[in-house]
User: What shape does this take?
Amino acid sequence: MLILLPPSEGKSAPGRGRPLELKELSQPSLTPARERVLDALVTLCRDDPDHAATVLGLSRSQLDLVERNASLLDAPTARADRIYDGVLYDALDLPTLSSSAKRRAGARLAITSSLFGIVRLGDRIPAYRLSGDATMPGLGPVAGWWRDSLGPAVTEAVGRGLLVDLRSSMYAGFWRPPAELAPRVATVRVLHEVNGRRQVVSHFNKATKGRLVRALLEHGGDPRTPAGLAALLAELGWHVETGEATKKGTQLDVVVTEV
Assistant: This one.
């Protein structure tokens, strides 16, 4: 099973650590694509910081993030599970997992990244700022760039297992599973129900996904189909509604009334 997570906008910058070595990251087939995005981001932020702030959607008070990007080649790195933070990762709370769940996390979790495509928890990366909807000079839309590169790497990572896609809509645009993989793809949507009305609420969505992944890792089950995943989540106490199988996979709606 491969669980594909969205990144966090905010990231914890390590105070020390060796510089980035792209060739040491998992999914080495992505190295050429990673080099192009990294070069485009560093060059933009180093040579034209004002324009970089506009491209990255940053305010004048966030120019330190432009400076950080400009220094990515020499910046200290840390494991990806120490870089990404925010609501989902707070709820997942990786450091407090049991030893067996931590091993499963290392094998089963991958994080979508605008800069690196996907990363595993043990990959050493610097803190960076690059949104999935950015359009980079000389490169074009980040999502379009990865759309041409990610497919083989994700397919290799999934192997013969189930892909549990927890990405937000922005990062889902980086790569969409082909029809032949669809029987082994489960996309998960979280719906917040209040007084009989359901809606997607960002905080509930992210926090619930973090708790859901934590529960799966602690349980240790390895379902091979969307139906198997739905059954396991129900066993773990979640209210799950399974949609129709499509050429893109099967959507599972997890309905919550409180976070």
